[in-house]
From TrEMBL:
Segments forming domain ATP-grasp: 120-317
Pfam families: Biotin_carb_C, Biotin_carb_N, Biotin_lipoyl, BT_MCC_alpha, CPSase_L_D2
Organism ancestry: Bacteria, Pseudomonadati, Pseudomonadota, Betaproteobacteria, Burkholderiales
Record-given protein name: Biotin carboxylase N-terminal domain-containing protein
Residue ranges constituting the Lipoyl-binding domain according to the UniProt record: 580-659
Gene3D superfamilies: 2.40.50.100, 3.30.700.40, ATP-grasp fold, B domain
Amino acid sequence: MFKKILIANRGEIACRVAATASRLGIQTVAVYSEADANAQHVKACDEAVLIGGPAPRDSYLQWERILAAAKATGAEAVHPGYGFLSENEAFAQACADAGVVFIGPPPAAIQAMGLKAESKRLMEAAKVPLVPGYHGADQDPALLKREAGRIGYPVLIKASAGGGGKGMRAVYSDDEFDAALASCKREAINSFGDDAVLIERYVQRPRHIEIQVFGDSQGDCVYLFERDCSVQRRHQKVLEEAPAPGMTPERRAQMGEAAVAAAKAVGYVGAGTVEFIAEQDGRFYFMEMNTRLQVEHPVTEAITGQDLVEWQLRVASGEPLPLKQHELRMHGHAIEARICAENPDGGFLPATGTLDVARWPAHVAFQRGTTRIDAGVREGDAISPFYDSMIAKLIVWGEDRAQALARLDAALRDTHIVGLHTNVAFLRRCAATASFSGADLDTGLIEREKAQLFDQPGLPLRVSAAAVVAHTLAVESATQGSDPWSARDGFRLFGAASRRFDLEAGGTHHEVRLSHHHRGGMTLTVEGESIDFAVQSADAETHELFIGAERIGVKTYAQGERVAVFAPTGSAVLTEVDLIAHAGDGPAEGGRLTAPMPGKLIAFLAQAGDSVTKGQPLAVMEAMKMEHTISSPRDGKVAELLFAIGDQVTDGAELLKLET
């Protein structure tokens, strides 16, 4: 076994690898960018080496610097995690040439499976089922368009060297093809340095089922069962679970054996995942192989009882697989939810900012348990535009799927993040849909259930307003001291006392009144309705509200005037407005085309002098490794472009000037 390894990654996966290494008594070396100097993964390792600037191309993709760090620190092996260099055969080969073990498959296996077109040809020879498509080397756009017509719309254009939903577009008609191909190629060259694509038939109502495989250097290979990753948006996974609902033992064996055949066809060693598209009737087709550990590997660990990172380390050090196929067993059901910094109601645009509050349910970290949180950030850390938007992974396990679903809902309910947009509430709604809870799964689930998933009303105002009032009263009670004259408890010798709270929620102003009665008791008046009100506060954050006949436990977190409220049925953010302090504020300027997040300007789709209409695409930005199209907020005429292509722009920056 190794004595010291270098982890060529950051964030959650670097912390994950470090946890297993520490348990096994292996020393770890972190590498970090200037943006990550105080990151959690740096503190999780025994040593750390600075390798460059914030952008991945200046740091985490600089494999020469990473190898130099391994040599300088005496690391015997490099664990690439996932993303960055994990599927880069040149890096794997450079490690071998430098006498450093690459904790992953041989370079030839990465190359064979990394190019989707080549992998399809290998799978066809290995008799692994394939989706009808074009995987040729000729990339002439006219030929690609003809092939799409031959295959039959809808088709998927996919970057041959891609993954993670990048460089992938669904095309439903001949008229859409040219623009989709150009966008796909542009994103592919930016993400992978290769704009070659393949085209496949877009299977209707497909399920995404993947098989975890493991090979050793002795030639043995096993499968550790399947994961269902059908719940996706923009081809990126949202919820993953194991085992796949409705999977029969016979079908599981067929898919597992096909996955092992795929791995053996390229002499695979280490952890890998063979991904299949599955029809609703159970037919399945090879899609691609990810030659690395997957983000969703914890659900496999949960049902098998195995530590897959430990398996990686043992196999890479030359040991045989810890278990044979007949020794592997499944128990229970596990579900993973990816918690990301993004705004689901805003088209899933990535969000940046500081984790002012990051509170989790009772859990274990980086090990098996009924509730597990794998995170590479802490409260107070910043989510920057340079890296992936994932904040953490929440994994739950139950004796059966029903218990796992119940635990998932409870864990998401108790996950409180403040400071930036997240998808936590969206994940909770998604897990509660009839489709997901009833295991009616396919990759179109989010679109099919959009009425339940998007633009849902938050907490009723009476609850969120009552929570803000409770928070204010608790803070005042804790700070007023023993001076009776400064107390704000509503005491009067005669008559009732009334107090006004000015709150803003969703851009709307609300006047809320709290009345203290002469004979005791309080009334809260919200939107013209007066309700009996009482509160028991354990501290400034934890409150038990009594609103009429309702009893509701809530949490409140304040940053300045803004108060985030979390209740069992949802959350809300309100602003407690000081009218005197804001007396001079004027209305904000509207109708501007602004950047919805920090990122790089990729393209303008209109020029100065062009007339445009509301909703017309005007600019394309790249942020967190994805492209985002920005549309005109109103009708008008482009007066001036304010940035050049390739410029980095800040959140809220005006991109171009529109005239009426």
